[in-house]
Amino acid sequence: MNSMNNTINEIKAALKPLKMETPAFRQIAVVVKPDTVHNALSYLKQKGFTQLSIVTCVDWIKESEFELVYILFSWTEGIHIQLRARIDRDKPVMVTATDIFPGAQYYEREVHEFFGVEFTGNEDAAKPLFLEIWDDLPPLRKDFDPQAYSDSKFPMRERGNEFVSEIGGHDDE
Amino acid sequence: MNEVKLFLGPQHPGMHGNYSVHMYVDGDIIKKARPTPGFLHRGFEKLMERRYWMGNLALIPRICVPEPDTNEMVYAMGVEALANIEIPEKAHWIRMLVLEMARVAIHLMSLGSIGGPTGLYTATYWAIAQRDLLLDLFEELCGARIYHMYIVPGGVRKDLPEGFTDKVLAMMDELDEKIPEYEDLILKHPVIHARTKDNILLPAEVVWELGVTGIGMRSAVGKEYDLRKVKPYAYYDKVDFEVPTATYSDALTRLNLKVRELYQSMRIIRQVIDKMPSKGAVNVPVSTGSALRWTVPAGMVYSAVESSRGEYGYFIVSDGKEMPYRIAVRGASYPQGLLGIEKYLKGHRIDDASLWMDSMGVCTPEIDR
Amino acid sequence: MVLDEKDNRNVWEKIGDYFSANSIWMKWYCTGCGAIELPPTMTSRYDMERLGMGPMATPRQADVLLITGYLSTKTLRRVIYSYEQMNSPRFIVAFGSCTINGGIYYDSYATIGRLDKYLPVDLYIAGCMPRPEVVMNGFNELIKMIKKGQAKGWKHYQENYEWYKKNQLDSLGEVIIKDEFHE
Amino acid sequence: MNVMSFVYGFLVLLGVFVFQTTLTGLNRKVTARLQKRYGARWYQQFLDIFKALRKDSTSHGWVFDFGVIMALGGIMATVIFIPVAGFEAFPGLDNIFVISYLLAVGMLGMAMSAAGSGNPWASIGVARALTNMLAYDVPLMIVIFTLIFAFDSSSLSEIAALQQGMGILGWNAFRMPLGGIVAVIALLGMLGKKPFDSFIAPTEIASGPMVEYGGKHLGFMFILHEFMTFIEVSIILSLFFGGGATIWEYMLKYAVLYTFMNIISGVMPRFKIDQAVKYFYRVPLAMAIVQGLVVIFTGLGVTLWF
Predict the structure, then answer these.
(1) Euclidean distance between CA atoms D266 and B187, whole angstroms
(2) Which of B245, C12, D219, D228 could be a cystine partner for D53, CB 3.0 to 4.6 Å?
């Protein structure tokens, strides 16, 4: 755990985070300002956090903010880092991380598709990925109601006049 | 240049699951490839926000169909970290037993599935039938063959049935006999060597670039980069096992590592059964009231375990309500399945496209979610 | 079985149905998680080939389309494509609760609810997911239905083509598959 | 040539179809046992063919349809020329060259039809099939020319008859062991068995030339495949394993040879097409040339050498 404390202190000194905590065993959460995310990522990569596990987003609709989450892992020390930054929900723009972690490309594309966050510098991010011919709000936003969408788009067929009828699993000849 | 546009999938027999790779080919060489995911997209992350913490147990195993236990473990670990639940000792041992049995099952399946892309169907028939006998054990344990829902926050659902460990040990002895047979059939086959040796390379810099984990990473980097060693969860630090590694990663190396991991998993299972206390609670109650109305304290946590394909993680956000606020899933084969295909499938032959997917361990449901 | 009491096939159709029933080639299209139980059904433990069933590579060659589980809209477009490529007599067997009413994904924005609104399903195999034994039993039932000339989904599709097409377009927007290179 | 020839030819076709289809069905069972399962019924192959013929099918233009008919016609014509245990529909015409040219009509029809479907997988499959043919044909032809040189005849029935009467060691496969090995390997390639089945590999190119066939077209292709198998196995059987003195002996030998091919195929993965070509041009070609030189310069093999 000594190296863990060292890492925490070093990160604290270098990044000057807004908030820092250890939510779980060998895990550090660092909250930074959105404009320092890019620097923080390249600093952490130098520190040995060479693996980008996931880029994702949380929709804090009450505060009208998106929280971008970058999770990094250091294989040498075995520490996970959550790097978090809040951006404005109405104009969600973020600088891409693909120049530091090329693997971020598809995560960013996914976040764009599901939340509508734009990543400057990632040309592919605006292309559709999982969804095809999507015509509604980005689906993982909190104000999107999947139940209503499903009900309107895929209504249950009215009963009666059915082609399929029920038969038993056994032989009933 | 005469380039032909081809669709590999989604209903191409060489495709693993419901996935599609669109490619331009020139002759037999793939010039450009684009992955097309989303055929299995169910919107899990949205659905999980609409279910209770306990209700999600029914959803999570379905995220990665061939390997459901990993999902349960990640979810349980994350929720326990958020709610500060200490689970009893025996539950840890049982979890390890289940996880390693699942690893044996999926390695057997993926060992057999080499028969798909290369045409060695006999291997497929043998290995999958063998895996089926292992699923029988799961059925005895929890009543289900595929979706177990056995590892729950707070421990495991119930204690092992009577005589279960003996059956597991008997199965391990049987596997000890059978796996060398599969090795003879698959790993020593000259034609398999011709297909896989020096083919489908994965250099170490590509590993770091994409973020590939699991066997792919260990076969290229040569270090024991396994979450069970680097960041031990459950009681993996109390058992003795090795993580097989290599420094030259081609399809054959990865196949070899798979088999060696199979033996290590069996070694862990034997130790777990040896060390597991015979008595003791297997779960702690997570709430005093109704399980459905159970709330988890607010917080954000990322939990990860080592699945057969690499780091499998959930990022769980709770706002203190009775449903999760947000859960993001990191599928273990996400890097190689999307960016890997786009960047590194080109240059291979059409013959190898299917083998590429198999060898890199692309599992489509966890990419699409 | 009370589907259709009167049997107005001529003798050639009866012979043809006998052959159809005993040699069923399925389309190898793993549309959902039910596909994980197909390898055990096919391989040595349950050995589907005993019933004369086997996987085939393309929809043209196949007789039965197995819908193994939930269908996202993206997949449904391809499934409709595949189904329309198949040669009649063709059958659809739908697996799992998801194809019946959406199953566990009833409120998902990406998966459809009820499959027989879009395609004529001859046989549903319930369960999440159906065990290999149930799958085998379902196939036996399908064989019986074909022998008796009761698996007439393809005729139903031809006769009610407009109705099916309208449902498909309502839910999917368009059925045509576009360029997916996004460039 | 008289009316009886044609009646006989028709009977041969029918007999060959029933025999070969039964054997294929039985071999599916053999493969199944190899894979530790029961497998299909022995008459499953008949059911499959008749089922396919019963179905509707989709046409992709007249080239597609005509190619199938041309292929079937060419192959059926070839079958009539194959001598079975000394019986021939057209005596004196069982020349190896006649057979290989007639066979080419069928092959061409298949290639034409598959390419006519317009599916890129089919085109890739046809290209691979032709490459594969080129690969196994060169060593096999060298061995066959060696045989023709050795026996001074190119008639299948004559070469077969010359091997009989000396017991098992009189067979060309034992007189010219290297040539026999080449022939067996080439037969694997001819039959499209693994490891040389990359032109119909379902997981690579979605069954290649067959990709657009369905219903009746596919039924015809299956019948064609049965006839084709018979021709290919028969050629090797007559040239290297002494044919058969009686029809029963012929059928027995045929069944053993064909089942042996299937068993090999059952435990083999497939080569990539370039690897298959490289393989044929390395090992079998060298063996064929050595065999040819031995026969030409030493005469071993023409005379019994043991």
Answers:
(1) 16
(2) D219
Distances (CA, A) of B224 to B111, B220, B230, B261, D291: 22, 11, 8, 12, 53
Q: Which domains does chain C have, with CATH numbers?
A: 30-172 (3.40.50.12280)
Q: Which of A69, A72, A97, A104 is nearest to A85 (CA)?
A: A69
pTM of the full predicted structure? 0.86
Each domain of chain A, given as residue ranges in start order, spans 2-150
| Chain B residues in contact with chain C using a Cβ-Cβ cutoff of 8 Å | 10-11, 13, 15, 17-18, 20, 22, 34, 36, 38-43, 46-47, 50, 58-59, 62, 65-66, 109, 124-126, 128-129, 131-133, 135, 145-147, 365
What would the two tokens of residue B302 be?
A: 């990322």
D246, two tokens: 């009686």
> At residue D161, does pLDDT exceed 70?
yes
Contacts of A140 (CB under 8 A, 6+ apart): A57, A59, A114, A115, B43, B45, B46
CB contact under 8 A, C171 and A157: no
| B10–C78 C-beta distance less than 8 A | yes
Could you tell me which chain A residue has the CA closest to the CA of C133? A169
Helix, strand, or coil (residue B309):
coil
Which residues are CB-neighbours of B42 under 8 A, at least 6 positions away? B62, B368, B369, C70, C72, C105, C108, C110, C111
CB-based contact A56 B210, cutoff 8 Å: no
* Cβ–Cβ under 8 Å, residues C59 and C89: no
The single-letter code of the amino acid at D191 is: L
CA-based nearest distance C129→chain D, Å: 24
Structure tokens of D183?
Answer: 């022939």
**Residues 6+ positions from B100 with CB-CB distance below 8 Å:** B265, B266, B268, B269, B272
User: Residue B275 sits in a domain of what CATH number?
Assistant: 1.10.645.10
Task: Give the pLDDT confidence of D176-199 residue by residue, as tens digits.
Answer: 888 888 888 888 888 888 888 888
**Partner residue opposite C19 with nearest CB, options D36, D50, D218:** D50
The third-level CATH classification (topology) of the domain covering A2-150 is Beta Polymerase; domain 2 (3.30.460)
Tens digits of residue pLDDT in B237-262: 888 888 888 888 888 898 888 888 88
Q: Do B350 and D124 touch (CB under 8 A)?
A: yes
| Tokens coding C148 | 């008796």
Do the chains contact at C121 and A131, CB–CB below 8 Å?
Answer: no
3-class secondary-structure state, position D34? helix
| Dist. CA B105–CA B92, nearest whole Å | 20
Is some CB atom of chain C closer than 8 A to the CB atom of D279? no
Closest CA to C87 of C21, C27, C143: C27
Helix H or strand E segment including A73: strand A65-74
Cβ–Cβ < 8 Å for C151, C88: no
Q: Which residue has the tokens 């549309």?
A: C31
Chain C residues near residue B22 by CB distance under 8 angstroms:
180-181
For testing the chain A interface, which of B326, B344, B362, B369 should be mutated: the one with the most A CBs within 10 Å?
B326
Q: Would you state the pLDDT for residue A163? A: 53
Q: Which residues of A touch C113 (CB under 8 A)?
A: 150, 154-156
